[in-house]
Amino acid sequence: MAKRTMIAPYRSYSFIDKDPVIDLVRTVVEDSESTYTKIHEDSGVSVSTMHNWFRGKTRRPQFATANAVLRSLGREFVIRRIKRD
Q1: Other Cβ atoms closer than 10 A to 70
Q2: What is the reported pLDDT for 82?
Q3: From residue 63, how far is each of 1, 21, 41, 46 by CA, in Å?
Q4: How far is CA 36 from the centre of its chain?
Q5: Average pLDDT for consecutive 10-residue bins of the chain (85 residues)?
Q6: Biggest CA pair distance of the chain
Q7: Residues with Cβ < 8 Å from 60, sequence gap 6 or more?
Q8: Three-state SS string across 8-76, please?
């Protein structure tokens, strides 16, 4: 069998309890002053899913789900080239 190697998803952030994306999404949700119910209606993501993210039950949210919440609040994840020295 071929040896499997794990690719670290974050080079500069070492997380134990949860993915740092949860903190980013939480900040956007809190800044929006929108309710979980309104976000659910606009994104299709359940209120219980958001509670699980923000209260620590979910360690790694799915990208599509997190992006749906952000898009319902007028934001989205963006992939962009970074400058290297």
Answers
A1: 20
A2: 87
A3: 31, 9, 19, 15
A4: 15
A5: 51 65 93 96 97 89 95 92 86
A6: 52
A7: 18, 19, 21
A8: CCCCCCCCCCCCHHHHHHHHHHHHHCCCHHHHHHHHCCCHHHHHHHHCCCCCCCCHHHHHHHHHHCCCC
